Amino acid sequence: MRLSRYFLPVLKETPREAQIVSHRYMLQAGMIKQSSAGIYSWLPLGFKILRKLENIVHEEQQRAGHLPMLMPTVQPGELWEESGRDNSYGPEMLRITDRHGRKMLYGPTNEELITDIFRSHVTSYKELPLTLYHIQWKFRDEVRPRFGVMRGREFFMKDGYNFDLNKENALHAYNRHLVSYLRTYERMGLKAIPMRADGGPIGGDYTHEFLVLAETGESEVFYDSAVTDLRLGDREVDFRSVEQCQAIFDEWTTPYARTDETHDEAIFADVPKERQSTARGIEVGQIFYFGTKYSETMGALVDDGQGNKVPVHMGSHGIGVSRLLGAIIEASHDDKGIIWPEGVTPYHCGIVNLKQGDAEADAACDSLYDSLTALGLEPLYDDRDERAGTKFGTMDMIGLPWRLTVGPRGLKNGVVELTSRKTGESEELPPEQAVERIAQIYASVR
Ligand code: P5A
Asked: What span, in angstroms and rounded, lies between the C-alpha atoms of 404 and 352?
């Protein structure tokens, strides 16, 4: 992409409404624009990253054997009357009346809708286990939408639902989700810790939230610092293996880690003093096992093979995809702007032309651009007729992990400069070698 042809409305002023750094940088870098409280338009740069995160979530869900689908944003009210949540969900639900006077709603979550789909089509245990998911916009009329995409009213969520014959199988689905979520966050360069939590309006008392530690997080958390040393790494996982998923679940949930809703001082006291930690965290996902809560009330029954019709055991699992943008920025930035982890960066590297209009510099930039593109990489070329300082400022703000700087002086010596956004370290290299280096870096990014 050439910046001269892009739509990147970078703000010069610091937006006053932003209380936390991720919100400020998302506005300043021209990624989002608020349309009303807690509701945003995603401008090209923000949208590109949102799509990247969405793709990672799709890949990891499907690796775990879950089936993608798409449910609508607007749901019929009757289903919620059937489940009983019409009353309990309260004013957070945006209720709509259509022209025929029918009660509709903008879905805050999809347990009812998916249970309705399931009961219409599945009648036998032979069709189990089944896990369906989608990535779709949700609406929750939050009392206090704030922090930009972090607590929006309209937000993008991956929500998945498992259907199993019994509790034992449903707990495997639970563990499998825990493992696949760990992989997902790792690929995004995030350290998210599963913590015992509270079921809230989704229900069930068996649930874990995934929290990214950050000072600006909305939740207070208590944990054994040993949990922060755990890594899933490049471990090959067979998601069908009950033992493997259980082992990883045990490894990650044995150290004490709870949100304030479930925190227990007495148990926490058993953690060695020097490892007892308190912090704040951003909730980037949550998994639930709620048994037959919806299947019983809504009649989602299957033949168990022994002549009985039994309610299926279910769980649901959510990732806050749009919130993740904010969480990643909170976890990875400096005072000049965002620092995207390589796994989610919108463009692989920036190209800064120090002397736009200089025949040699222009040709060198074009050639770098073409070489990177030919290797399947996406560069963002700042070909605007702007001062070097402005170009560097923009690149630092939007946070691409690597920058190539091209100017007549370097070209005279046959080199361009490769700079790491994270460390600020630069290296002078012949253009072909710089391209090769960038290709190598991204070859090792999953
Ligand atoms: C699980 C999927 C559920 O809704 N039903 C379907 C279950 N869980 S949840 O914890 O309530 O939401 C899942 C994740 O969505 C993100 N999230 C939000 N993101 C931005 N703005 C909001 N207002 C918001 N509310 C929830 C969180 O990441 C949460 O973990």
From this structure: 6
Question: Cα separation of 366 and 150, whole Å?
Answer: 38
Instruction: List all residues 6 or more positions away from 433 whose beta carbon is below 8 Å from its beta carbon.
Output: none
The radius of gyration computed from the CA coordinates of the chain, to the nearest angstrom, equals 24
Please name which of 351, 416, 410 lies closest in space to residue 384, comparing C-alpha atoms.
351
For 442, the token pair is 């991204």
> How many angstroms separate the alpha carbon of residue 375 from the centre of ligand 1?
37
Q: Is the CB of 112 under 6 A from ligand 1?
A: no
Residue 142 CA: which ligand 1 atom is closest?
23
Ligand 1 centroid – CA 318 distance (Å): 6
Residues of the chain with pLDDT under 50: none
- Three-class secondary structure of residue 81 per DSSP: helix
pTM of the model: 0.97
Whose Cα sits closest to atom 12 in ligand 1? 318
DSSP-derived 3-state class of residue 97: strand
For 63, 226, 242, 251, 374, the CA distances from 231, given in Å and listed in that order, are 19, 11, 20, 10, 34
Ligand 1 atom nearest to 282, measured from its CA: 28
Closest CA to 346 of 37, 43, 27, 19: 43
Work out whether strand 206-213 and strand 276-291 pair parallel, antiparallel, or are unpaired. antiparallel
Look at ligand 1, atom 15, and give the residue with the nearest C-alpha.
320
Return d(Cα 407, Cα 354) in angstroms, integer. Answer: 5
pLDDT tens per residue, range 135-191? 999 999 999 999 999 999 999 999 999 999 999 999 999 999 999 999 999 999 999
Computed from CA positions of residues 211, 420, 383, 444, in that sequence, does the dihedral angle turn out positive or negative?
Answer: negative
Q: Is the CB of 382 under 6 A from ligand 1?
A: no
Q: Name 28's Cβ contacts closer than 8 Å, sequence gap at least 6.
A: 10, 11, 14, 15, 337, 397
What are the distances in angstroms from CA 276 to CA 216, 253, 266, 283?
20, 15, 12, 20
Whole-number pLDDT of residue 446: 67
